[in-house]
Structures are given as structure tokens and as C-alpha cells.
Amino acid sequence: MTAAASSDADLITAHAAGDPHAFSELVRRHRDRMWAVALRTLRDPEEAADALQEAFISAFRAAASFRAESQVTTWLHRIVVNACLDRMRRRQTRPTVPLPEAGPGEPVAPRDAMAERETRLVVQAALNELPEEQRAPIVLVDVEGYSVAETAQLLGIAEGTVKSRCARGRAKLAKVLGHLRNQSADANVPVNDVQVQQGRQLEER
Amino acid sequence: MTGNARRSGPPWSVDLLADLHAGALDPRTEAELRPLVENDPEAREILAALDATLDDLHNLPPIPMPRHVAERIDAALAEEARPTAPVIDFAQAKARRAKRLGWGAGLLAAAAVAVGVAVVAIPRDNTAGDGGIAQQDTTTNTPVTGSAVPPGSADLPAVRGENFGPVFGDVLKAQNYGPLENQEQLADCLRGANITAGKPLGVSPITLDDKPAVMAILPAGTPGAYRIVVVDPQTCGPDNPEGVLANSTIEP
């Protein structure tokens, strides 16, 4: 039942029927994407790991009563996103740990990849500076590729709210990232974005 | 959103154009704005900047889950999948056998449920015989005193005997070496019992039968298998096998 060909719904059914490996297989399928969501929204690897562990345990316990009103992936992702949002709400402000500069599988390419890697760092740093209410939908829609409808469902907000929060966040990012260099910076750009802009200017030299 | 239409035209509101770009405007406002925007170079430049921003976001690299996090979550799920597995820690069972007459079968069953994991004793090093975890089985309830008591030890996860189940999840989530301070010191302690260990999946100060100790959960070499070790931070070291108080595996 835990063969790769099984659908997510098959795995949930198998889990409910007592297959001890079915749920782990489900997690294995989705964990990278969920890890990226958790890490990019929480910005702290330890917190992201804690949130995912809690979320998966919670899902494990609830899975037997899962009803196919929504897709398994949506249901599972929502539990993960909620775990992250809960943590974001619980914490006030706390220092964050920089994200890894590159995925573990990325080759070390000393020259050509440097500029690209710096750009990614600058983008990630700018993303980190967004208010949480804007960062979460931007991570889901623009980085992870969820649809607006899926994101609305995951975050428990209206689709229009997802769109407008994404719009606000993108406008800020466009300025911070230097795409709107000729525009007067009239958005709520945080002070430390100056460093981000400087970083981008360095990279563009 | 129709109110934003009042700001249409140079100088453009970036937020208004971002709303347009995101499809966040109502259809009527959007219909009014589109021709104005398409005929205005400044507006088109702002939309191009928003497109470039989207490209930047789309191009952020995937972030695969690190192996140690994946292992930690696998371990937590494996433990969750075995809520009623029996205790089959042979060394411990042997040590307790004499006590069984005084205990009801129902109580033993309850203890097995509480453990929640199948624990299999691992032979210790060649010189330790079948001692397993027996060395820690000095069941005195000596109060922990002096510097041996870590601050806040009352809040530490508490283990009785081999009942690791209730603290397993907490330890798995922790990376706190407590009095051992770092991975190297833990590795030194485990070397005393001929256990070679890399970075633990989880490590935390605990109390073991009211004594301060440090518990670590290690990969056991096969998928779904994990090793639980407990050391006495006061005495453990590379030359002291007695410093390892417990050494068990959880097997799938």
C-alpha cells in the first residue's frame, strides 16, 4: 500500500486501516515543500523543525478521521501552515537565523553562480523583512506556487485578502530590491532595508 | 478598491498598480485603469518592476529538508505509530523479574503502554558482559544535591527506569547538551561504552530516577531504528563505561 504509485488518499486510507508506514510515506512526499514553507515563514530552522514535528504528529493523530472534503495535500499543508502561524502569533519579536545560502544539493560554482546566489540572498533577506501577514501569502503564492484559492484556504482568509496582501508585499519588495529605483520610496520600507539595497548594488557592480 | 482609481495617473501609486498587477481590484476599476496604464510609460515601468520582483521570488531555490530534521520527524512518527508496543528490554525485564510477583499484571500492561516504544537492549562493549543498562539500576532515591542539580531541574523531563516514552518527543525536539555542553563531550561519554555517535537527533538534560542525567536519541543505522542513550554527566567519560546509564534501541 505504501508503494510510490499509491495516491495520497490511498495512503490516508491505509493509515486509518493500520498500515504503520503509510503516514510516513505521505510525509516523505511533501516534507521538502513544507519545510521550505515553514522555514521561509518562521525564518528560524529550529522553530521550523518544531512546527513541522508538531504539525505532522497532529496530522498523524487526526488522519484516521480525515474525510475527503478537501484534498489530502491541502488538508496536510493547512495543518502545517497553521502550526507555523500559531508560532508566528505566539512569538513577539525574536532574532532570526539566516537561511542557508544554498540547498545542500547545489554545486559549489565559484564564479558564475556567485552573483545568482547573492541575488537569492538579497531576495530572501528582503522577504524576511516583510510583515508576517504579507510574508506568509507571498511565500505560498509567489515562492511555493500555491494558487490564490489554495492560499486563501490554507491561511483561512478571503481570496481578495490574499491578493491585496500579496500586492502590498510585492510593492515593498520591488522597492527594496531596487526594481523601482526611480520611484520615490513612499512605501513602508523598514530602515534596515537600506542594507538590502546596498547588498543589491554591490551585486550589480 | 474603487477609491484607488482617484489616484490613477502620474505620479502613479505603486500600491494601486500592485493591486492591479495582483488582480486585487474590482473589474470596473480594473477596466478603467488598464487603458491608462498601457499608454503610460511610467505605469508600465512599475508593472515591469513588479514582474521582475515576481521573477526574483519564483527563482528562490527549493530548500530540501535537512537530513537531521527528516530523521527527527521520522523518529517522532515512528514513536507515534507504536503507542502500544510491548516492552521487550531484556536486561531490564531480567532485572525486574524478581519484582513481578509483587505487581499485578494489569499494572505491567499499563507500564508497557506508558513506555510507548519497543525497547531492545543492545549488548554493551566486550567488557561489559550482559550488563546492558543494569549499572544504573541502583534504585536509591537519593536526593540530588549541590552542583549536581542543574538549575530548574524540577522542570526537566523525568524518566523512571526505562520509561522513555513520555519524554521521547521532548528530547527529540531538543538540542540541549546541558552540563555536557557540546557534542564532543557527549561523544566522549559514549565512547566509554564503545558507542560511536555523531550528532544526536535530539539531546536534553533529564532526570533519571531523580538523578540528573543527559538523554540523547541517535540514529541506529537502519531506517526507523533509533538508539536511546542516557549518561551521567558527573562521571561519564571515555574511560568510564559506568557513565552510560542506559543504552537501548527502538526498532521498527
Give the helix/strand layout.
The complex is a heterodimer of chains A (205) and B (252).
Chain A: H1 8-16, H2 22-42, H3 45-62, H4 72-90, H5 112-128, H6 132-143, H7 148-155, H8 159-176, H9 193-204
Helix pairs in contact in A: 1-2, 2-3, 2-4, 3-4, 4-7, 5-9, 6-7, 6-8, 7-8
Chain B: H1 14-22, H2 27-38, H3 41-58, H4 67-80, H5 90-97, H6 105-115, E1 119-121, E2 158-159, H7 165-173, H8 183-191, E3 202-208, E4 211-219, E5 226-231, E6 244-250
Parallel strand pairs in B: 2-3
Antiparallel strand pairs in B: 1-6, 3-4, 4-5, 5-6
Helix pairs in contact in B: 1-3, 4-7
Domain RNA polymerase sigma-70 region (chain A): 26-92
GO molecular function (chain A): DNA binding; sigma factor activity
Family (chain A): Belongs to the sigma-70 factor family. ECF subfamily.
Description:
- Chain A: This is RNA polymerase ECF family sigma subunit.
- Chain A: It holds the Pfam family Sigma70_r2.
- Chain A: GO terms for molecular function: DNA binding; sigma factor activity.
- The complex is a heterodimer of chains A (205) and B (252).
- Chain A has nine helices and no strands.
- Chain A is mainly alpha-helical.
- Chain A has two domains: 83 residues, RNA polymerase sigma factor, region 2, helix turn helix motif (Rna Polymerase Sigma Factor, Chain: A, Orthogonal Bundle), CATH 1.10.1740.10; 93 residues, Winged helix-like DNA-binding domain superfamily/Winged helix DNA-binding domain (Arc Repressor Mutant, subunit A), CATH 1.10.10.
- In chain A, helix 2 packs antiparallel against helix 3, helix 6 crosses helix 8 and helix 7 packs across helix 8.
- With 252 residues, chain B is an alpha+beta fold.
- Chain B has two domains: 57 residues, no CATH class; 184 residues, no CATH class.
- In chain B, 40% of the residues are buried.
- At the A-B interface, helix 2, helix 3, helix 5, helix 6 and helix 8 of A face helix 1, helix 3, helix 4 and helix 7 of B.
